[in-house]
Design brief:
Keywords: Membrane, Transmembrane, Transmembrane helix. By secondary structure, the protein is an all-alpha fold. Helix content is 69%, strand content 0%.
């Protein structure tokens, strides 16, 4: 068969093989060809460019961030500890008073 191709004799490639070659070649061309954006995509892209240009041209406002002073955590913890001690001491005092009233002695 190789001799026939070299000499130019014979049919060459069968039709089914040739059709398969054409389909495969066109498929690869379609996949590798660059895609042109649609009209809508071009329109949206142009609008984004205009908005970006308008943002760049507009003067920027400086936003000042208002910072609240942080509470002193040591004062807050001290207050919590003092309140806790007062509550627990009050509960002990009430319990001792109840025991003294009921039994006549505390311990």
């Amino acid at each position: 068969m190789e001799d026939q191709r070299r000499s130019g004799e014979g049919e060459g490639l069968p039709d089914d093989i040739w059709e398969k070659f054409e389909k495969d070649s066109w498929g690869r061309i379609d996949e590798s060809a660059p895609k042109e954006p649609s009209a809508r995509a071009r329109m949206v892209e142009e609008r984004f460019r205009q908005e970006e240009a308008a943002r760049a041209a507009a003067p920027r406002r400086k936003r000042r961030r208002v910072r609240r002073p942080r509470p002193n955590l040591s004062e807050g913890r001290l207050r919590t500890v003092l309140i806790s001690v007062a509550v627990i001491g009050g509960m002990i005092a009430v319990s001792a008073l109840a025991a003294w009233l009921q039994y006549g002695r505390v311990f």
